[in-house]
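FORM 7B: Structural annotation worksheet

SECTION A. Query
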Amino acid sequence: MKKRAYYITWSTQDKPTAFNFTGSKGKYFFSYDKKIWDCLSTSSQSIFGHSDKRIKGEIKSQIDTFCVASPKADTADKQIAAEGLLELLGLKGKIFYTVSGAESIENALKMARQVTGRDYILARRNSYHGATLGALSVTGDWRSEEHLSLGQYTIRIPEPFEDPTGEKTRAIVEKEGPEKFAAFCLETVSGISGVIVPPHSWWNAIQALCDEYGIKLILDEVFTGFGRTAKPFAFHHFPQLKPDFVAMSKAITGGYVPFGALYTTNETFRFYKKKILSCGLTNYGHPLGLAALKAVLEIFKQPGLQVELDSKAAYFKKKIDILKERFQIEEERTIGFLTYLKFKKLKSFKLQTFIDHGLYLHAKKNVIVLAPPMIWDEENFDTVFAKLTKILEDHYEKQAL
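SECTION B. Predicted structure
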């Protein structure tokens, strides 16, 4: 391959983490003539696979109608998609359209600060909310470290398992002064950064602080929305939550079109009835994104889908449990179609090793993360886990030498 004329993301450019990609179809993508199982749903967005006819069909139909529309255009699809999205969320409110997860978070932060008249945000250290400067200001992991942002207006709270009853978080809020906090900005379940599933007791404490002090709750569902946790949204596992904002993207279109959305309450909407909403994007409510979203919403209306998802997720967990019996796993966290596995006594994994054996997943140090698409069947899980077992056996055997 000749010298690249473009950057590779999240990498040093002298030795970037990259691989050859020549096409995709169904449950796989291709690296030249090698078929690669997409065990990460690309970056969690292609949860419906790479060739869903319903999503592709809606996009193609829209292309033949019109491809571009003003952000101020009232179109039928804006209304249809918003109503369907609110139904899937199970919430009453309004939808603000975006083009990415970071933009969904950005607009949630802007609105929360305007509505409350407060400046500060509460967020976790182990978190990722997007690469734009506002989203980076609430991101806590390494990706925010070298950039100037609004981080001085972010107060970090303990991780859920450091503070399962929320007492430490309450102490921080009350010491700093609850009147300064506009919102909590939290991943309902974290993705690549650890698949942290907070206990109900922690969420109870967060919601209680929001209710008591008028702090808004921003839930980041960019990674976990649209079936990743075997429910439409991760917050559906926590019925006590009353989000003021829900940030969405990635699987909102199956990844076929860059798109996103932000849920807001009717209370937030009423704030802007007489005040100008100073939020907007050139591609707000883009016609192709709306077309893809409509197809995704139809997928979730299929009879028996929830039973199917529960069954597949249970089989996925069964395969993980077998893996745990075979290998020394220090940490395992699984919810739906998402798992974090940290192995004992293993040296650092390399992505290329898995690519060479026909698997694409997240691999860093002695950790792997799997986020397979919901379209896999039991035979697919068997095939992938057989390959994964062989790779791990090779790693342990080489380490013993």
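SECTION C. Observations
The chain has a mean pLDDT of 93. The domain at 23-51+306-400 is CATH 3.90.1150.10 (Aspartate Aminotransferase, domain 1).

SECTION D. Sign-off
Analyst initials: ____
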